Amino acid sequence: MAVTMNDVARAAGVSLKTVSNVLNDYEFIRPATKQRVQDAIAELGYEANLTARSLRSGKTSMLGLVLSDLSAPYYAELASKLMKAAARRGYRVIVEQSDAGAAAELGALQGTFRQLTDGLLFTPLVADADAIAARAGRKPLVMLGEHVMDPRFDLVTMKNGEAAAALTRHLLAGGRRRIAVIGARPDESAGSAGLRLNGYRKALEDAGIAFDAGLVAPAAWRRDAGAAAVAGLLEAGVEFDAVFGLNDVLALGALHELLIRGVKVPGEVAVAGFDDIDEARFASPSLTTVSPGMEEIAERSVGLLLDRIGARETAAQGVHVAAGFELKIRESAP
Amino acid sequence: MAVTMNDVARAAGVSLKTVSNVLNDYEFIRPATKQRVQDAIAELGYEANLTARSLRSGKTSMLGLVLSDLSAPYYAELASKLMKAAARRGYRVIVEQSDAGAAAELGALQGTFRQLTDGLLFTPLVADADAIAARAGRKPLVMLGEHVMDPRFDLVTMKNGEAAAALTRHLLAGGRRRIAVIGARPDESAGSAGLRLNGYRKALEDAGIAFDAGLVAPAAWRRDAGAAAVAGLLEAGVEFDAVFGLNDVLALGALHELLIRGVKVPGEVAVAGFDDIDEARFASPSLTTVSPGMEEIAERSVGLLLDRIGARETAAQGVHVAAGFELKIRESAP
DNA sequence: TAGGAGTTCTATAACGTTGTAAAAAAGAAG
DNA sequence: CTTCTTTTTTACAACGTTATAGAACTCCTA
Predict the structure, then answer these.
(1) Which of A250, A263, B7, B326 pairs as cysteine with A226 (C-beta 3.0–4.6 A)?
(2) pLDDT at B256
(3) CB B73 within 8 A of CB A73
(4) What is the pLDDT of residues B164-176, one digit of tens each?
(5) Within 7 A of a protein CB, which nucleotides of strand D?
(6) How far is CA A135 from CA A69, A77, A102, A156, in A?
(7) Which CATH class is domain B160-291?
(8) Cα A235 from Cα B213, distance rounded (Å)
(9) Is A209 an 8 Å CB contact of chain B?
(10) Looking at the complex, does the CB of residue B279 fall below 8 Å from at least one CB of chain A?
(11) Which fold has domain A62-158+294-323?
């Protein structure tokens, strides 16, 4: 039997509610009474029962995080940082893996998972804005990433286009002219893939270089797909002097494939990625990439979500935030 | 206002408890009644309130997972698999990061976090067995990893010693005679580091090769520490023809450092790791390592924990389980 | 057609908190 | 001292579920 508020009240010789008031920093309590209650709490080792508190107050002090796969390095790092940011503010984060399935993504908006949380950090990859809006409910929801950019939703993201353009300019400045892009998603223009590809095209255009669709290889955002995409280009006889992996694992997969085939990096082909996962620094050669300001993303998305949770009314309009980025020039594309 | 059981009861023309009985698969309910209740549930879109259920039943349907850092690839993969294993059984996992701090590890055993969960999957790195036992409480607790091997606790682990010995034998069979070990923890013999080092020594001994303490480099289990450890050995003029990183990120850091310095891998020095993280397959050269049966670890630790949660009494004796391993021979040490 | 053994259902009381409203105590003003 | 205001404390209900115990049905048997 755990110690309850009632036990504390009895020990301190006050009513149940007075104990509750002390715990909730109610204004009008005599210092002597407060002390007596606190002594009783310390002596009995009382700890508030969160379940009961949640039931009564309707708040759980938990945030939900929906992402496709926690074992992907980018998401693992993001989740870790989000948890720490939330912990600093007295919240806990629970994670739901969607495996990039639409049903799982939409399911996380409702039911058990939603019920357990006061607000959601949501990284949709396949569900569309209308389907999300229809199921969004009234609890706050902050989008992470680029799949859904809709004025109805709050959104914290990165400067995909600008960063991809900056990276492309860097490759061009290094004398590269035929930059292959791997990881494109031909079917979508709004997601991270589309935005980064746009940045790439913009930089080419600004430099007066024609865009060649033959240099763009679609691929799922996994290592093996990155390797396969590069293998495909090589076997098709496509010539290129640089590879831009739309994220780091794609670039690392490509790097691996190039090295296996005896292609010199960066001598013959430069390689660059996007995300600056920990591994990028320690690849051989180390990977040039974009650091998308993950710390800032974590901090601001949790901050925004908690603002919404604390607000009286639901916001009429979504806020869009884009964290700053930084180019990380390393050996693979100096 | 969410739909409650009371609304369902009214709509179906039965009592509150009958609805509860339907939801909990109580045996004695007339099929017609059951149907009526289920229709009402479907029509009203009722969903059980987990908080209220928890308060009344004392069960949360959540498991706790305590680990040092979710952004470390090994832990990220483990967490992902544990969540899936738990989900298959109707449980959710919430993660607490200890940052390898004793206070945080012990803190996770008590207070809020413990309260929210029906049982704990615990990966201690610094806390000692007695301190854990003193705070273990009465809710089930399953240890993961090797830091605490104590008959009082249930434990799911891997075959560290055997696997390290097998890997060492493989290096020896490839003609390597001076195998450097990086990532040792001189202060502890019981943890993963100690067990793997023992396996290494055992294999050397069996092969009649003298152990040379000069080949053993202490290092924190991070990439940069692995790189630094190898750099240290090289700069100290220590000769070696193989590096055994006590985990994969150490080995990958070492691999990186060797390549930067122009040391041929595996030509001059073979490199091997431990864990078989996703990245190991895609390193250049790909990394020879040990796959420690993580799937099996996830499955069995969740299974064991749920057995304990479901059991009438607390077990008198801890059960120790060691998952099988598999050698992954790749390019870095063929 | 009563008696008994099942089966099916229900009223009521918890679980441990917080919110409401009002009572009690203390202080100020006349 | 009263009366009024402000501060402090309290009794009681409520959050939505499950547990207990017993009532009300059904069906069988004698």
Answers:
(1) A250
(2) 84
(3) yes
(4) 999 999 999 999 9
(5) 7-21
(6) 22, 28, 13, 20
(7) alpha beta
(8) 49
(9) no
(10) yes
(11) Rossmann fold (3.40.50)
